[in-house]
Amino acid sequence: MPLPHTAPSAARLLTVLRRELPEDALGIGPEATAPYAADRSGSRPEGEPLAVVHATRAEHVQTALRHAHELRVPVVPRGAGTGLSGGANAGAGSVVVDLSRMNRILELSPGEQTAVVEPGVITAELDRAAGEFGLRYAPDPASAAISTVGGNIATNAGGLRCAKYGVTRDAVLGLDAVLADGTLIRTGRRTVKGVTGYDLTALLTGSEGTLGVITAATVRLRPVPESTATVAAYFDTFAEGAEAVSALTAAHVEPAMAELLDGPVLAAVDAAQGTDLRSRGGSLLLLQCDGRAAEAEAEAAVRLLRKHAASVETTTDPVEADRLLTARRLVLPSLERLGRVLIEDIAVPRSQLAPAVREIAVIAERHDVRIFTFAHAADGNLHPILVLDPDSPDVPEAAWRAASDIFTTALRLGGTLTGEHGVGTLKRRWLAEELGAEQHALQRRVKAAFDPHHVLNPGKAL
Amino acid sequence: MPLPHTAPSAARLLTVLRRELPEDALGIGPEATAPYAADRSGSRPEGEPLAVVHATRAEHVQTALRHAHELRVPVVPRGAGTGLSGGANAGAGSVVVDLSRMNRILELSPGEQTAVVEPGVITAELDRAAGEFGLRYAPDPASAAISTVGGNIATNAGGLRCAKYGVTRDAVLGLDAVLADGTLIRTGRRTVKGVTGYDLTALLTGSEGTLGVITAATVRLRPVPESTATVAAYFDTFAEGAEAVSALTAAHVEPAMAELLDGPVLAAVDAAQGTDLRSRGGSLLLLQCDGRAAEAEAEAAVRLLRKHAASVETTTDPVEADRLLTARRLVLPSLERLGRVLIEDIAVPRSQLAPAVREIAVIAERHDVRIFTFAHAADGNLHPILVLDPDSPDVPEAAWRAASDIFTTALRLGGTLTGEHGVGTLKRRWLAEELGAEQHALQRRVKAAFDPHHVLNPGKAL
C-alpha cells in the first residue's frame, strides 16, 4: 500500500517533533540517521530515513507516533538493529523510533520469578541480572549479547534452548505498547495464568513492529538448572545425525539444546580455527541436558547415540562443555571469513530434517551457490547459510533464487518460511503461499484494526 | 451491540439450512434445542435458540456460518457445554453450532509428537490415545473426562498440570477455523517453531467462539514422565500453606501440580466422605513432581515443607498417590452435596495467594455467603466456590455481590478476573476495568476484523 507521504508532511513532522521532544532525543540529517537505516539482513532500503527519535520514555514514543499517524509518515521501530530479515530497515521518508536508550530493568522479582523491563535492555543483561538470584531469562537467541528484549519480542526470537524452554512468546506475560495513533495500552498480566480478553500479548509478539511499539515487557524468569550435561556426537553424514535426533525424540529424551552442524560447516570451522572436526565426521551433534536429572538424561542419550554415531563424548564439567560447544560458537565467525553470509531460517517437521538438508545440497548445486547448514535439530529449525563473494556489493540473483528454492522446499515439506528470524522484507514474497489467501487477507484486516493508516513499519512482516 | 435479527431472517435461515444440510445435522424446536441452550455456569440465557446444527464436517460449519452471516443471525459454537462462564449459552434467536460429533482423532504422530484432531474429541480420549505411544496431551482441566479439545482451546483451559506444562495455548500449534462469513482458514503450522505472520493461533485460543469456529487442531504431545512422586502436607492455616508454596518457588522446586485446599473445603469433604482431613490441619497442599528427577525433587520439597507444615507424607506408589489425591478429586462432589455451587476463578501474583484468601474470607462474611476455596497454588490461580441454597432457582443478589468483590480484589492485588475459565457472559461487567478503555476498544476492533456483523457468539468474552 503506497503511503500518501509527501515532503510537506515530513517537514511538518520534523517541526513538531523538534518542538515537542527533548533536543537530544531527535537526530536529523544523514549523519544522525545513517547508523539506523538498516539491520543485519544484508539488504539495504532505498533512500535515507528522515529522522531518528531516541526515545528514553514511552511518552517520546507516543509523541512521535501521534504526529506521524496524523501526518501519515511511516515509522520504523528499532531495537539494536540485529535483525536478519530487514524488519528494521528504514527507507526514504520514514522516521526511526530507536528504543535502545530505554534500557532499564524496572523490576526484578525473585519471589514471583518475573521481571519488568524496558525494550532496549540487552537480552544477555537481563539474563545476567536474573542470574544474581539463581534465575535466568530462558530465551537465548544467538544474538543475546547484542540484541534487545524488545527486538526479541518483536520477532518472537528463538534460540538454542527452545527445544526445552520454548520461544520468546513463552516467556512474555504482558506488554506496554504504543499503538499507531500514540495510544498506550497494557496487555496481558503479571500472573502466570489468565484468559481475560483476546491474547494481544501473543499477537504483538512476533509482529515485527507493525502493530505497536513495545515500551515495556513483563517477562517470566526461570530457575537456573541445577546441573547441565553436554554430549558431542560425530556422524558419518548429516542424515545420520538427523535420524539420531529423531531417535532421541522417540526415546523421550528432552534435551535443552540439540545443535546439528553439517560437514561443510565443520570444514569451515577447521579452516578458520585450525581444528580437525571434519576429519572426525560428516556432521556434529551438540546436545545439552539440564535440570536435576541432567546426567541421567545425558547417559540415556549417549546409550542411544552410540548406536548411530561414529564417536560420542560427554561431560558435566563446564570447562570441558565449553570446549565441546566452541565449534558451535565459531560457526558464524568462521563462515564470515569465507565471504559475505546470508543467513536463512526455515523450520520443518522434525522427521523432515534429513530430507530438507538433502534438498538444500541439491539447491546449492543447481544455483552454484555455497550453502552451509546447521540446525536447532530438536525443533526442526534449519539455518542454511549462503556464503557469497565478499567483493560484490549486491546479493547475486543466483543467491536469491537459491533462497527462494529453500523456502518453497520448506513449505513443500510441511514446514514454515521462518522458524525464528521473522518475515521482515525478505520473505514477504512467499508469505501468501504459506498463509493462504484468506488468512493473508484476515491478517491485513487485523493490521488495519491496529494501524488503519499503515504508518507502523509499512512493507514489513505482512 | 444489538443484532438486527428479525423473525423473517430466522425463518429464511432455517429454510436454507434445511435445504443445504443433511437431515440429521439440523435440530429445530424446543425439544431439539433445549439440551444446547446453556452451559454449566449456572446462568441461563433468555429465550430458546432457533436451531442446532450438529456438524460432522467443516463444510457444515461453513454452510451454517455463511448464511447466518448473510442473514445476521447470531451463532453460538458449542463443544460439550461444560463451560463455567456462560460462553456457550445460546439465547433467543440464535443458532447453536454443535461440534461434539466432529470427534475423530485425524492423525497421531509419535515421531513428531503431534496430533491432529477434530474439535469434539474429548480431552481425556486424546490423552488416552497418546498414552498408547507413551505420550500425553498435557492440558488437563478438571473437566478433561467430559470437555472437548475444541472447547478447551476456545477457553484456553488450564488445569492441574499447568504449573509445569503450561495452559492449552502452549499445546496448540495450528488451527483450522471457520470465520464468521464461512471462510475456512488454517493458522499456525505443524512445526515446533515458526513466526510467519501474526499469531492468529494464539488469538483464536481463548477467544470463546467470538472470532471463529475451530474445526481442527494440531496439538503437541509430550512424553509421559518416567516417574511421579506425590507429597501431601497439612498446615494450620491456608496462609501457611500459601507461604510454603512461595518457599518452594523460591527454592526453585518446580512441581507439576500444587493444589492447595482450605479448611472449609477439607471439612466439606469430611462431611460428605467420612474422612478426617480437617482434624489434621487448616489447609492441605497436594504436590506432584514428575520426570526423571521426580523423587529427588519431591525429597527437596519435603525437606522444605517440614519447616512449614503440621505434617508431611510422600509416596511414589501410584495407589498410595491416588489415596492422597482423593481429597482433591472429592472437592466438587462434596460441595455439591451442600448446595448449588458457583465456581469462581481468579488468578493473582503468586505472592498474593494468602492475602487473596484472607480477603475472600472477609467477603464471605460481609455478604453472608458460604465460600470454599482451593487453588492451583503454583500458578496463583484460585477457585473460590460459592455454595448457594439448592432450593432457590436464582442466584441470590448477595452471591453476585460477593463474586463482584472477589473480582475487584483480584484486580486490586495485581491479578486477573479469570485464570482459566474465561469471561463468557458472567465477567463482562469487569472486563474494561482489567483491560483499560483503550485496550478494550482495540479488542473490539480486532473482533470486527474477524466478524464485522457480530454474528459469532455476540455478547460473550468482550
TrEMBL record, chains A, B:
Superkingdom of the organism of origin: Bacteria
Enzyme class: oxidoreductase
Enzyme Commission number, as recorded: 1.1.3.15
InterPro entries named in the record: FAD-bd_oxidored_4_C (IPR004113), FAD-bd_PCMH (IPR016166), FAD-bd_PCMH-like_sf (IPR036318), FAD-bd_PCMH_sub2 (IPR016169), FAD-linked_Oxase-like_C (IPR016164), FAD-linked_OxidoTrans_Type4 (IPR051914), Oxid_FAD_bind_N (IPR006094), Vanillyl_alc_oxidase_C-sub2 (IPR016171)
Cofactor: FAD
Gene Ontology molecular function, alphabetical: (S)-2-hydroxy-acid oxidase activity; FAD binding
PROSITE patterns tied to this protein: FAD_PCMH
Keywords for the protein's UniProt record, in alphabetical order: FAD, Flavoprotein, Oxidoreductase
Region (Disordered): 26-48
FAD-binding PCMH-type domain residues: 45-224
Classification via Pfam families: FAD-oxidase_C (PF02913), FAD_binding_4 (PF01565)
PANTHER family: GLYCOLATE OXIDASE SUBUNIT GLCD
The protein's name: Glycolate oxidase
Taxonomic source organism: Streptomyces violarus
